[in-house]
């Protein structure tokens, strides 16, 4: 019985992992688009004020079980990796 | 025009951030449930074989723009923090 329950929860977890994968990549595409717009405007890609606002929104909307500090840590990682993705885009543009 | 476009993309990004927040917390709830079931079975919470399978699924299903190594890095962080969440649950159980 326990094993069956565990198996069901794991099927759900796999499904959630795939949703998470989709959303993270959807987010990355948006960040790339934003990077393109900023590039045409000659604006710096890294915007600490905007990042702070996004982190504040996480704090405001978080209903757990993760605490806000943990979630902000995950989001900061994603912000950092997204910025690196934009930098790779610029580097590729320079190479072609 | 560029600013309007940027504003629209940021509204979309805020929306995606909230979806991401929901999914991460939904995942955390499932992991807590799995932790409870494992506890009644006396099984170790950390399961490297299961983690490997989840990371392989990420590799298989990833369509970018993030590369697989980056995504696996993000997921490993989430796995680690989820395990800590389960440990907090156990600690709280011990305290009451």
Automatic annotation (TrEMBL), chains A, B:
GO terms for biological process: aromatic amino acid family biosynthetic process; chorismate metabolic process. Residues 1-90 form the Chorismate mutase domain. Keywords: Transferase. It comes from the Bacteria. GO terms for molecular function: aldehyde-lyase activity; chorismate mutase activity; transferase activity. This is Chorismate mutase. It comes from Anaerobacillus alkalidiazotrophicus. The lineage of its organism: Bacteria, Bacillati, Bacillota, Bacilli, Bacillales.
